[in-house]
Design goal:
Rossmann fold; ABC_transporter-like_ATP-bd; binds adenosine-5'-triphosphate; 337 residues; 2 domains; antibiotic resistance; P-loop_NTPase; Alpha-Beta Plaits; nucleotide-binding; ATP hydrolysis activity; four-stranded antiparallel beta sheet; 26% strand; single chain; alpha/beta
C-alpha cells in the first residue's frame, strides 16, 4: 500500500462532539475481512479518516467498496477486523445520529411530496434538524411541494441527501451517489454536498467517476481486491502511478547527461526540447532552472484515470521502470500490492 503524507495531515486533529477524546478518528477500519463463499470481497482493509476530511473511495467493479461501506454502516458484519465510528460501533454511532448515508437505491414514495417525505423521515428520529433547513442545505428548498415521482434522478438524490442530514450527522457516507445522473444533475448534487461539507462534516464517498474524486475529495483511497492500494491527495495519487513530465527548451542537451540529473527516470530530446520523466518534478525543475540554460519550462501531470488504471490493474507494479517512491515529502511507505 502507498500512503502519502496527505493521508496523515489532511485534516485538523480535532473531534467534533463534546466529551470526546481529542484525536478521536471519525472512522477507523482495522484489518477488515469479509468473504462471500469463495469470494474475498474485503481482504485486510485498513483506513483511518479524521474529522473534517472528504475522502473518495475509488476502485474498479467488485473492489469491495460497497461491502466496506455496508460494514461501516453496520449493515454487514465483518468476518474479522474492527469498525469504529467516532470511537463507537456503527450501531451506536447511527443510534446517536453521528453517521448517516446516501445510498444508490432506497425506496422513495413517489406520491408524497418532497417536504412530506422529509417530514415523515424526521418523525423516526428522536431529534432532527428542521425540514426547511435540510431542504435548503440539499439545494432543494424550492422543491418542497413537488411530488417525488415528478423529481429528476438528481433531485431525488438531493432528497436522499436532505433526509441523511436530518440527524445532523458528523459523518456522511455516500455510496456511488450520482450513478445514472446526467452531468448537470451531478454538478448540482456535488455543489450541495460541497457547500454542506464546508461546515466541517466528514464525508466518505464511493464513486466510479474519477473526475468526482479529483474534483471533490481532499483524499483519494484506491481499493483493489478488497485492500487499499494507494492513499493520498488526488495529485499525489496521480504522481505515484504515473510520475510527471518536465519539459523545457534546452538546445544541444544530451540525453545521457539529462538522465543523470537527480530525480530523472528517463530523458528524451526532441529537437531543442527536452522531456524528463520523473516522480520528483520539483527537484528536476529546480535543477533545470538553476543549473542549466533551460527556458520555457512546463510540468505536465498525467491524469487520475492513468493512475487509477495503473494502480488497480493486475499487471503488477505500475511505476515507470527505474522510478522509486523515495520522496519523503509525498510518501511514507513504498510498495504497491
Ligand atoms: N451478497 C453477496 N453475495 C456474494 N458475493 C457478493 C455479495 N456482495 C458482494 N459480493 C462480491 O464481493 C465482491 C465485492 O463487491 P462490492 O459490491 O463490495 O464491490 P464494489 O467495489 O462496490 O463494486 P461496484 O463498483 O461494482 O459496486 C464482488 O466480487 C461481489 O461480486
Amino acid at each position: 500500500m502507498i500512503t502519502t503524507t496527505a493521508a496523515r495531515d489532511a485534516a485538523p486533529d480535532v473531534s467534533t462532539a463534546a466529551g470526546e477524546r481529542p484525536g478521536t478518528l471519525a472512522l477507523e477500519l482495522r484489518g477488515l475481512h469479509k468473504s462471500f463463499g469463495a469470494v474475498r470481497a474485503v481482504d485486510g482493509l485498513d483506513l483511518a479518516v479524521r474529522p473534517g476530511e472528504i475522502v473518495a473511495f475509488l476502485g474498479p467493479n467488485g473492489a469491495g467498496k460497497t461491502t466496506t461501506i455496508d460494514m461501516l454502516l453496520g449493515l454487514a458484519r465483518p468476518d474479522a477486523g474492527t469498525v469504529q465510528v467516532y470511537g463507537r460501533s456503527p450501531a451506536q454511532a447511527i443510534a446517536q445520529g453521528r453517521v448517516s448515508a446516501v445510498l444508490q437505491t432506497g425506496g422513495l414514495l413517489k406520491d408524497l411530496t418532497v417536504a412530506e417525505t422529509v417530514r415523515l423521515t424526521a418523525s423516526f428520529f428522536p431529534r432532527s434538524r428542521p425540514v426547511a433547513e435540510v431542504l435548503d442545505r440539499a439545494g432543494i428548498g424550492d422543491l418542497g411541494g413537488r411530488r417525488v415521482g415528478a423529481c429528476s434522478g438528481g433531485q431525488q438524490q438531493r432528497l436522499r441527501f436532505a433526509m441523511a442530514l436530518l440527524p445532523d450527522p458528523d459523518l456522511l457516507v455516500l455510496d456511488e451517489p450520482t450513478t445514472g445522473m446526467d452531468v448537470e444533475g451531478r454538478r448540482e448534487f456535488w455543489a450541495a454536498i460541497r457547500a454542506d461539507a464546508a461546515r466541517g462534516r466528514t464525508i466518505v464517498f464511493a464513486t466510479h467517476y474519477l473526475e468526482e474524486a479529483d474534483a471533490y475529495a481532499d483524499r483519494v483511497v484506491l481499493v483493489r481486491h478488497g485492500r487499499v492500494v494507494a492513499d493520498g491527495t488526488s495529485a499525489e495519487v496521480k504522481n505515484l502511478a504515473a510520475g510527471r513530465i518536465v519539459s523545457a527548451t534546452l538546445p544541444g542537451a544530451r540525453p545521457e547527461v539529462l538522465a543523470a540529473i537527480d530525480g530523472v527516470d528517463r530523458a528524451e530530446v526532441r529537437g531543442d526540447r527536452v522531456l524528463l520523466h520523473t516522480s520528483d518534478s520539483d527537484t528536476v525543475a529546480r535543477h533545470l532552472l538553476t543549473r542549466t540554460q533551460a527556458v520555457d519550462l512546463e510540468i505536465a501531470g498525467l491524469g487520475l484515470e492513468d493512475a487509477f488504471i495503473a494502480l488497480t490493474s493486475d499487471t503488477g507494479d505500475p511505476r515507470p521502470s527505474g522510478t522509486h517512491p523515495t520522496n519523503p515529502s509525498t510518501l511514507t511507505t513504498g510498495s504497491i500490492r
